[in-house]
Design a protein that fits this description.
This protein is α+β, with helices and mostly antiparallel strands. It has two domains: about 300 residues, Bira Bifunctional Protein, Domain 2 (BirA Bifunctional Protein, domain 2), CATH 3.30.930.10; about 90 residues, Rossmann fold. Helix content is about 40%, strand content about 20%. α6 packs across α7 and α6 packs antiparallel against α10. The chain binds one RNA strand through α3, α13 and β14.
Amino acid sequence: MAERLSTDPYKGVRDFYPDGWARLQAMFARIRGTLALWGYEEYNASPLERAELYEAKTSEEIVNEQTYTFMDRGDRKVTLRPEMTPTLARMVAGKRRELAFPLRWFSIGNRFRYERPQKGRLREFYQADVDLVGLPEGEADAEIVRLAAAVLADLGARESDFVIRINSRPLLDAACAAAGLSADAGRRYLRLLDKKAKMTPEAFDAERASLSARDPLAFVDDAGAAPAVAAEKKKLLDFIATLEARGAENAVFDATITRGFDYYTGMVFEVYDRNPANPRALFGGGRYDRLVALFGGDPIPAVGFALGDVTLADFLETHDRMPGIADGRPQLYLGTPREGDIPAAQAFADTLRGEGCRVFVNLTDRSLGDQVRDALKRGIPLFAAYGPEEAASGTVRMKTLATGEEAALPASELPVRLKAGS
RNA sequence: GCGGCUAUAGUUUAGUGGCAAAACUCCGGGUUGUGGUCCCGGCGUCGAGAGUUCAAUUCUCUCUAGCCGCCCCA
């Protein structure tokens, strides 16, 4: 005898029952609304990509150990997309002669990473990727950072709920060069810097000392020490001042923000929860000017950010800002006194549906009392029985379940009432 | 990949080396044209496998899964 099949979802992924899916959709609906207001258009692509797309730009460890990669039946190496940016770069490069730059594009969908699941991290998650493609650093960067703040604000977050920490890759590169770090040591230093907030100062210094005699951050702090560092720092501080002047008042300079170390070439930022109970980076982004050039042709500069559903939901819940679920539920439960009344009830429901009303018709032989209970459990706000009496009289008694009120209405007036009440 | 904790009904949890419990949910009935109450009944290989034992849901080991931390985080 075969073992019973498990009802659990695959490791690290979630089932979305209707309520859960509605919650996710409600969250992203808000985000879509904000992005539409800023002139961003939604695009999409298959989650299946050629594995080489990621091998070209990412470290070997990530591709080998942290992606879902397999051979298809035609011996093609396939990867389930772990992020959207390479796909975006591929799509942009593929139609670079036809697209109207600058592009303001976003995409919302699932991403796959083969990792050990833990708090805030799953093997499949949903993410909104927002990008402004085709403009060099300057106004585009300011728009992207302000848009990141606007997305949170439209989700109900206050400025006091989060802080935007901004840094610059050229600044870090200049500081590493000033401290005499090799390219390899610089890369390891960035990785260390990323962890600095979690370490004791002594532990940080000890590890740092193994990479260089002087801490590159010292050059960032002491602007007089290296002209190249000073120039990059001034540029970044000017940028932050611009953001403040345009209303993004919770943007601050933070020299420890590194944002990984792969394709970023300019400004990088991370949005942090200000609540001490949830001290995580919520999301981040930055400028990547060389990615599109991997597909040939002139480089196309770009700047963007990505916002995942798991950390965002944590954030909204800690601040009690989770949007109410968009209500696509039925408005009216149409009860059937006897099983034989179902065809007439469906026919009546069809006329209501024709008016745009969401109607649930009972198909069971349960008693009307049980059907009322059923409507309550399903959260359907209105109940009406439809049987021979109603068909003959053309009058329906509609009950508002929350209050118990009943109103006898001409059948033709139901759509009006449903629209008014919804 | 490494480590910690956990696993008993659909859910949340008690409990015991000797007959497995409660609450809620669900299903059926009391109650065949309209409310959540109430009453009765039903729904378990105690995560899987092996070992110790007269006897294991309980003790031991292995595995699996979940949660949490490390690594990593594009």
